[in-house]
TrEMBL record:
Protein's UniProt name: HDOD domain-containing protein
Matching PANTHER family: HDOD DOMAIN-CONTAINING PROTEIN (PTHR33525:SF6), PTHR33525
Pfam families linked: HDOD
Domain of life: Bacteria
PROSITE patterns: HDOD, RESPONSE_REGULATORY
All copies of domain HDOD, residue ranges: 135-304
All copies of domain Response regulatory, residue ranges: 2-114
Amino acid sequence: MRIVIVGEDAGRAGEFEESLSYFDLGWDVHWLAEADAALSLTEVDVILCGLRVGAVPGTALLGQMSSMHPEAVRILLLDQDQDSSQLQGLDCAHRLLSRPLDAGELIEAVDSVAELRQVLGSEELKQAVGRIGSLPPPPRLYLELSRLLRDPDASNAAIAQMLSQDPAIVAKVLRLCNSAYFSGGREITDIRAAVTRLGHQTLLRLVLASEAFGPTQLAGKEREAIQDRALRTSRLARRLLAGPSAELAATAGLLAEVGKLLPGVSNGTEGSTGPHYAEAGAYLLGLWGLPMPIVEGVAFQHRPGRLKASGFWVAGAVHVASSLVAGTPVDEAYLRNVNVIDRLPQWRDLVEPAAAEAA
């Protein structure tokens, strides 16, 4: 396996590789000073860099490497006192690790991504998805709106104009905007007012919900129940993390049950057959090209302890939020391991009632 470390102190190379040698993995480690050197590589299995590599933002470098080497594991290195809530572009990285880089932590990070890929690439899952005559299409408007919102000069008028190209989406967004979750007491009747009320990230998720939970084989009431849980899970998951991580958790929470919309998958109840809906949903999101932390959060929503990365991040937030909303047991052993068990009572108090109860 070829490991590429860009822009870090090459003086630590000998010390780091000596530590790595104890694990006897046979990794080929390269230390590069400049981003251009990384972009010229033809083979990369894992790439690591900090927030800046010379004049190049580390997130931009990882974004380029994602296009050039989509199979490579991308890791962003942060100083230990770095406030991650102030960071932008975290979705370009599969993992965040602290400086100074630790060999054991790197191995855990790489192994966990490999495990996720093994889940998404299981033969049972491939066959189940292959038997589906027509997969739900990628959320076109969501992806277009995501690109527009990366422009800091994007106006609410431009956003409203883009959304207006799909009247069905406009109708669904307005319906959700006026629901018990988002209503501010005054009815919203036009999409520009919805943009102003909701804010860009919430609006983006409502568009995603409208597209992801469109026409399916599920009956109307069942689909509405899934969408109701999705909105409550999303809002709760967002409150469990900070900064950009909160937005990733909110989107993953929104899509936690999207796999249930696929035929031939297990709904998680005893006796049901086929691949589990969490894995199937994660596979679908991978096909759609959504960021890895979101895919990972959906795939591991019921077993966050299987992730070898330390700390409480997106998968943990989705697990807690989806369990509390659905009324299923929370993995308290996992919460103890990541040192957040004391926050569980507070999180329970944040659970919103179902739409039928709130109406």
